[in-house]
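Thread amino acids onto this structure.
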């Protein structure tokens, strides 16, 4: 499936209307450091592209007013973007007064595509060709190796990635990967026991094999980016991804939180309670993942269907026991949950809300929202945000 000629030939007014504020106001992952003079051009490039991405087509004068950059700087940057094929002129805006009508410009949303890969599924690796707006255009999957085998996992990943590269219909901006495990910012997988990887240079290796820019991050850290960019999340929130395992991604002050060991959000192996509990794959008893993973919940309910409500209530309570200290320490506004709605929505979330309020300071954290994400393909879409951020400075 490719973008139709009708979409590419839409009029400037139609194009602007379709994309204006598509993802809310032009927010971005803010840098905490001061912009140095030698970094000013890169900062300005990202600011212009960020504004166009979130606000849609506008004139150069509009862009100057919106960003606070001079018209000379805007003209210089836009000319550079057009030459690079990143930005296109959409035609003139309908005249509303005297003078020459301005030419509208926008990111060429249909001129490039992104490959996203999600390695977190229980049975398969999933991938997609996505538009720059995070829409899935083509989808593929390959079986996940049945046992942790690093070489087999990489071979399956490479096969999937190559298939998607061949399925793309426009030049690729890059490839994004969301993988279980602890991942350094340079894409080195420090540890992913479920895939059999230790100190594995995933980003560098696949980049060489595909001859394309590749970015790799933890799957929950990818998902939190998708919720931030395409979803309804606030500037301070935690996303808990529940599937084969349990992990979390964190954004505080509009900035991803990775931690000194790049393991922020690794809550799946926090022991919740002092009453033992199911044996976890890591060898401990009572880890949050052992209580809350989809496979554990499904197996427990299948073994005792009449206890379904109790099982889900207990899982939600234990999730809140693990997350309440994080919410309080970081003063988070939301806890967003990603996983199967038939298990997580309702009783489990209600129990989590009640426990969270009981275990945090009364009158301070009562307005914290606990909700299920509305997004599908959240890791794939997060992989797209990784590439947009890495290649264009857009988030």
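Threaded sequence (395 positions):
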């Amino acid at each position: 499936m490719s973008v139709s000629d009708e979409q590419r030939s839409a009029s400037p007014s139609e194009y602007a209307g379709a994309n204006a504020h598509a993802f809310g106001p032009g927010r971005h992952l803010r840098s905490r450091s001061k912009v140095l003079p030698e970094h000013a051009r890169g900062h300005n490039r990202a600011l212009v592209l960020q504004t166009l991405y979130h606000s849609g087509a506008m004139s150069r004068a509009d862009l100057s007013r919106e960003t606070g950059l001079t018209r000379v700087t805007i003209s210089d940057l836009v000319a550079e973007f057009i030459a690079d094929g990143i930005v296109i002129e959409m035609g003139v805006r309908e005249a509303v007064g005297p003078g020459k009508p301005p030419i509208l410009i926008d990111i060429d949303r249909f001129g490039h595509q992104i490959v996203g890969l999600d390695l977190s599924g229980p049975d398969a690796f999933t991938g997609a060709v996505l538009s720059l707006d995070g829409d899935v255009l083509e989808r593929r999957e390959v079986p996940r190796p049945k046992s942790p085998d690093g070489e087999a996992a990489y071979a399956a990943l490479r096969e999937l990635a190559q298939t998607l590269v061949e399925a793309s219909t426009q030049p690729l901006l890059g490839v994004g990967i969301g993988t279980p495990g602890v991942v350094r910012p340079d894409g080195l997988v420090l540890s992913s026991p479920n895939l059999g990887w230790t100190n594995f240079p995933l980003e560098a290796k696949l980049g060489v094999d595909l001859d394309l820019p590749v970015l790799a991050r933890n799957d929950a850290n990818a998902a939190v980016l998708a919720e931030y960019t395409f979803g309804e999340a606030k500037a301070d929130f935690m996303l808990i991804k529940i599937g084969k395992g349990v992990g979390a991604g964190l954004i505080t002050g509009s900035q991803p939180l990775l931690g000194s060991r790049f393991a922020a959000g690794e809550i799946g192996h926090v022991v919740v309670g002092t009453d033992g509990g199911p044996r976890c794959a890591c060898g401990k008893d009572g880890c949050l993942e052992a209580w809350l993973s989809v496979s554990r919940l499904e197996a427990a309910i299948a073994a005792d269907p009449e206890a379904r409500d109790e099982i889900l209530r207990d899982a939600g309570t234990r999730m809140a026991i693990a997350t309440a200290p994080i919410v309080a320490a970081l003063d988070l506004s939301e806890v967003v949950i990603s996983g199967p709605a038939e298990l997580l929505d309702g009783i489990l979330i209600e129990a989590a809300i009640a426990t969270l309020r009981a275990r945090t300071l009364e009158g301070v954290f009562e307005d914290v929202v606990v909700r299920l994400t509305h997004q599908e393909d959240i890791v794939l879409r997060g992989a797209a945000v990784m590439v947009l951020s890495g290649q264009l400075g857009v988030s």
